[in-house]
Amino acid sequence: MEHALSPATLTELRRPRPYPAVSVLTPTHRREPDSTQDPVRLRNVLAEAKRQLESDPAVTRERRTEVVDQLDRALAEIDLAHAEDGLVIFAAPGEHQVWSLARAVPERVVLSDTFLTRNLVSAQAAERPFWVMSVSADRVTLWNGGVDRVTEEHLGGFPLTRGTENFDAERRQRIGDLPSTFRDEDTRHFLREADTAMGRILRGDPRPLYVTGEQAALSLLDEIAGSASGNAVHIPHGGLAHGSPEAVWQAVRPLVAAEGRKGVDSVNRELESARGRKEFAAGVDEVWRNAREARIRLLAVEENYRVTVRDDGDHLIPAVSGDLDAREDIVDEIVEQCLETGAEVRFVPDGTLGDAPGIAGVLRY
Questions:
Q1: Which residue of 69, 284, 309, 332 is most buried, as measured by CB atoms within 10 A?
Q2: Chain-centroid distance, C-alpha 134
């Protein structure tokens, strides 16, 4: 199952496809007793997708058979034992993908000529993704970080490795050739390559970067002062280039939490200042109207804020889930719209926004 949504991946998902491109969304649960119903819910929503394919006159028998096969293949890849809060399945002729999200999604089936990506976009923003680069003299490992985990990322040449023949310390001591590991010119060149590779990744997918390693390695990276490590948060913790995801997560977790708290304080200051300047919007209807006009510069959303609405033509008004014209993921729509118009989107703990009901924005004008 997929977890990391890069800009390149999002672009690929959004490209037009031969009809039908099927998007299947279903909420999932991490723990019992709620998780016991997930297999039944998943089978039912996939059955609904197949029913819609069967009844759609625009779908030929050949195309229907092909897409149903892709749905069945996707189902075979799903392991609900590792479920998070939402599951998204994409299927089209010749392809399928399964995405596990750390954010709830409404149950939905959509047949179109593009995949429905707004829930992925919103989940990505809510996870506050970051990179971790773990360095040693013979290996540099890249980790993809999210709200509660890191996973190793094979991207842009990572992991970078060097042969072990350069690390025979006993032999080098006998011949009087044992400089500090991180003063060796080959090591400097190796870490400079890693810094350059990391810079390329950051240009394509900008995120906060944490770098772990022995203090000597971090000092060398400071000397190199490249585009990546020069702006990173350094964590003096060796051994993680060869470590486990859990070990890396435990090393970076306190700093990630501290940065998150600083971010919440910054959002609160910006919102308070915007109130004084009359550049403040609050509530789903007011924020949605400003988002459509590309007026939102900073969007703040409480992590578990959900609301179901319908559009009466002028305003969004409360609706009941399951109503024919109900929009159950309007918050995710707003997040995607704001990101597409260049706004910063920040998810904050529940209760942070005070009298602003779950969602607020700082306006550009």
A1: 332
A2: 20
- Cα Rg of the chain (Å, integer): 24
DSSP, collapsed to helix, strand or coil, labels residue 343 as: coil
Rounded CA separation 256/238 (Å)? 18
Q: What are the DSSP E strand ranges found in 56-208?
A: 86-92, 95-101, 108-112, 130-135, 139-145, 150-152, 160-161
Each residue's pLDDT tens digit, 316-364: 999 987 777 888 889 999 999 999 999 999 999 999 998 888 999 999 9
Query: Cis omega (within 30 of 0) on the bond before 20?
Result: yes
Other beta carbons within 10 Å of 33: 7
Cβ distance 82 to 100 under 8 Å?
A: yes
Separation CA 343–CA 51 (nearest Å):
39
Q: Collapse the DSSP code of 85 into the 3-class scheme (helix H, G, I; strand E, B; otherwise coil) and give the result.
A: coil
**Sheet bearing 344-348, strands edge to edge:** 280-282, 359-363, 296-302, 344-348
Residue 35 near residue 28, CB atoms below 8 Å: yes
Structure tokens at 137: 């003299």
pLDDT digits (tens, 9 = 90+) for 156-199: 999 999 875 555 444 444 444 444 567 788 888 999 999 999 99
Q: pTM of the full predicted structure?
A: 0.75
Instruction: Give the burial string for 97-120 (b: 16+ CB within 10 Å, else e).
Output: bbbbbbbbbbbbbebeebbbbbbb
Q: Parallel, antiparallel, or unpaired for β 160-161 and 209-213?
A: unpaired
Distant-in-sequence, close-in-space partners of 307: CB < 8 Å, separation ≥ 6: 284, 318, 330, 331, 358
Phi, psi of 319, deg, nearest 5: -140, 170
C-beta of residue 209 within 8 angstroms of C-beta of residue 202 = yes
CA distance 42 to 27: 9
